[in-house]
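pls design
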């Protein structure tokens, strides 16, 4: 049953608001878009198809990320130049990812990304960021940030994942940024990316605008509380919480990968 076929009752709007409240808090807490929460709930509970769920989630991320990055920004926990360099790479990477989507085995790429997440989870227990750590951008670091954006864009184009789950841990572990700057910078690079994607989805009809509006406004209302929580917890505790969040993603993606491999095996046996 599609989302359009379901009559919208007040309970449906409350559901959208509840999804947004939860997604907004986790977006501010972890510096991610919240799509990993919004998309599966829209599919499982609100009966959205995958494309419309992804498009609606991306639209809801725009106000969420704006509030989140503003909250980090007033604390001086956003590196605007780093965010710009990542965006430059991610725009090109998204186009490459879209091209590779039909040329590389998606399940193999998904498995490789799961392996990457497992390595990141382990590293989060070894590298504890200092809250005073700043990014001193020179040519090589700038090139590295563009490359990070490129890789993030490719993975986004191929797997439909948000950039935050790649950008935040890499900024912490590889570039030595503080956990707060990593999260604030991640949200900053999401705003133009999500806005651009939303315009495209709106043109293609892959978007439920009223649902996105309710989810986005609700998420924007709790994103700042997530930022406060991120600043309140100890950096090591923040790493542990982020590792738990990534572990949830690993389990979710592993299940989807196994399901996909089984379906491919069944198709090959016919």
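designed seq:
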């Amino acid at each position: 049953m599609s989302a359009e076929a379901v009559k919208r009752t007040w309970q449906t709007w409350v559901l959208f608001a509840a999804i947004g409240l939860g997604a907004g808090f986790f977006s501010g807490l972890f510096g991610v878009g919240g799509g990993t929460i919004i998309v599966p709930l829209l599919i499982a509970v609100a009966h959205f198809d995958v494309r419309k769920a992804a498009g609606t989630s991306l639209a809801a991320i725009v106000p969420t990320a704006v509030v989140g990055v503003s909250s980090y920004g007033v604390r001086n926990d956003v590196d605007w130049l780093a965010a710009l360099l990542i965006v430059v790479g991610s725009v090109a990477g998204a186009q490459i990812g879209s091209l590779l989507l039909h040329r590389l085995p998606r399940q193999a790429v998904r498995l490789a990304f799961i392996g990457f997440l497992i390595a990141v989870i382990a590293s989060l227990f070894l590298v504890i960021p200092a809250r005073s750590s700043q990014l001193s951008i020179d040519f090589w670091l700038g090139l590295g940030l563009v490359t990070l954006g490129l890789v993030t864009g490719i993975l986004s184009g191929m797997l439909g994942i948000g950039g935050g789950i790649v950008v935040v841990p890499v900024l912490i572990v590889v570039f030595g940024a503080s956990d707060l700057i990593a999260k604030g910078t991640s949200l900053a690079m999401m705003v133009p990316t999500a806005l651009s994607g939303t315009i495209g989805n709106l043109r293609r009809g892959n978007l439920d605008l009223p649902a996105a509006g309710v989810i986005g406004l609700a998420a924007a209302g709790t994103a700042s509380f997530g930022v406060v929580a991120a600043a309140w917890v100890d950096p090591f505790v923040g790493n542990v919480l982020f590792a738990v969040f990534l572990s949830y993603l690993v389990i979710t993606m592993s299940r989807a990968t196994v399901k996909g491999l089984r379906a491919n095996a069944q198709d090959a046996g016919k």
